[in-house]
Amino acid sequence: MEHKKHIVSLVKLVCMLCAVDFVTSSRVTTLQDMSSLKRLSFQEEYHVGGVDVCADIIGPEWKITKQEKVDYLCPELLVWVPKTGFTELVKVNQKSQLEGGFSIAIFCYVLHVLPFNIQPIFKPFVNAKGESNGTYDDLLKQIRNQPSESCQAVVGDVTVRASRTPFYDFTIPYQGAELYMLVRATHEWNQTLWTFLKPFTWRLWIVIVGAGIYIGFAVAFLEYRVGNPKFKVPVHQKVVMIIWFPISTFFFYEGKILNKNSKVVLITWLSMIFIIVQIFTATLSSWLTIDQLRPKLPSSFENVGYQYGGYVDNYITQNYNCSGKHLMALKSIEEYKNALSNGSISAIFDELPYIDLFLAKYSSDYMKVGPLNQQSGHAFAFPHDSPLVNYFTRAVVNVTESEIMMKMKEKYFRFDVPNGSQSNQALPQSLDIHSFIGLFIFTGILTIVAIILSESSIMSTSTKNKILPIST
After folding, report:
1. Average pLDDT of every residue of the chain
2. 356, 420 in Cβ contact below 8 A?
3. Which of 112, 132, 365, 435 has its CA at a distance of 20 to 30 angstroms from the CA of residue 262?
4. 39: closest CA among 136, 95, 156, 120?
5. From CA 205, how far away is CA 98, in angstroms rounded?
């Protein structure tokens, strides 16, 4: 009897285990079916294709399956992207299909470093004609009233603004977006009445004049000591001779100098002047040929341009006493170039990434002025209180601090980072005393030695010529 009871209990336990396993299997199957239905609903409702842009950007590593799984997060994410004229950031082709761009590449790498798998489904924000379907605020409205658990996001060159934060959650910015002004540049030759003095600083000029007076005094003293009649003149003439003599030595004759030590001093002085003149000539030629770009600032901000779809038009009207009636919305680098070239506008207000892209192509005739206003930067947007934001923010930090960021900038922007702006030839540097300090010290010491040797020679000669009395 006891044995039969144990068998009945064992059968009941097996039946219960089978029932639990059946329920679990049914739940997993249901979740998989729901995921498949969710994917089908995304693709059918928004008419998106099956092109895996991230796989093209990252390569085979994109397909790696990650271990961590979070049930309440999205296995798939509907990603809204803008259509912009700056295809370096977001490129949508004529068939309204996303092809890539810098912002998209950064987002794909952010997905790649997440601890769990999310498959993005990109949806360009375009109308039936394949054109942009509105402004960036219109784009963000696609996720504005979505529940926090909604698997949707906005990715692209979207700027974090204080007016947007109450309705959307943003990751930290993946690139800066300070506001600048783009203007035509004028070429200026940096020449004035006193340009010929600029190769040397005023301190160096004073030292050169002082060295000339020092040499003149030394030569006058040496010649006076040997009785040169040219130097036996009144005091005021001696002063003029001391000042003028270092210059007149360029044309002196051998017969005018009687003291051999004076000749040594003069040869040293002429050698020093020759070196200084050669350096002066080379530096002066740099100053005379320097070409400086100067921004041609507008006198009025009524006729200026801005990028279509952004917030900059409001910034201009609020901060530059502008009515806004003649502002021009532009969509691409070519439109920027044409509008500035034909005089339709006098300046363009835009964020730094777009300005640098323009200057990378047309740096010789245009300049940027700014920053005019500090913006948070470009970031990825999610519905308010989305649980995905914290995960994506940490992933953005990992990507921006890695070498991936620099490689993507070099790939899509095609200019060396961070020097994406135009180069402006710097003014030559004026030479200072330290450039010739060794030459001055050498000349000064040699002059002192020459005076000492001259005095020694005069004293020796005087001693030999002295007649001693003859004792008887």
Report:
1. 79
2. yes
3. 435
4. 120
5. 65
